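All the exercises in this workshop are built on plain-text protein records. There is nothing in a record beyond a sequence line and a structure line. A learned vocabulary of local backbone shapes supplies the integers on the structure line. The question running through the whole workshop is how a given chain folds. Here is such a record, shown just as it appears in the course material:

***
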Amino acid sequence: MTLVQTDDRYPTRLVTVGEHRDRTDPTVWGAVDSEELASFDANGFGIVEELLTPAEVTEFSAEIDRLAGDPALQGDDRVIVEKSSNRVRSVFEVHRLSGAIADLVRESRVAGLARQVLGSDVYIHQSRVNYMPGFRGTGFYWHSDFETWHAEDGMPAPRAVSLSIALTNNYPINGSLMVMPGSHRTFVPCTGSTPAEHYRESLQEQEIGVPTHADINALANQYGITQFTGSAGSALLFDSNIMHGSSNNITPFPRSNIFLVFNSVENTLVEPFAAPAPRPTYIASRDFTPV
């Protein structure tokens, strides 16, 4: 039976289509002092150019190649492969698999961005590397991360942010991330009950916990769509509830990134709001130790 939280302010996975809800929580909880994050409250994201140096891009690119090809990780649940090509799509819990990434997470230029927006100490809710190879890289359909983290992980409020650090150039043509500026202020409930171990399918292709075409049409007309493009080493910090997605990459130009999710230590996970059991801790950590 699906668990139901009695204090759920963001109900989702409904039997019938529900109305969009105005966000009842702040979008910025702290004091933003970085110029790159000046518009975060209004837009739900901020772009940091040259977060990594060219030398660091080379170093981390080699590190994620090592992880994707590590024989010790073959068959590991933390490694997600593409349905069609069997190529590595994502590697989860990379801050525990890589000392270099663990060190990067703790740096003020990284975790400090999250602390500014969230107004508290933060911990890693999820870390992963995403690979989108040329020609066959599969995109991610429109979604709000918070909807999934709330429903399946038990995250009470959208007091979390994601940092996507580009290790390759992001062009408009190679599946770079699209976001709807301002949509973080609107919560879109989804329909359908959550099957047991839903994560095994959703990490390859999500079908439950995604908005309808009517939802996307309404949001796109209200907020518009913009795209995160930029050189390797640039980064996008974005709100957990912003509507975002990416298209397939049919170009020869691969796209890969380090993806870090920071949650406030004042917003730690409880029981799932709309799932029979919590997802594994390599997807949704229950170690709330501040970084």
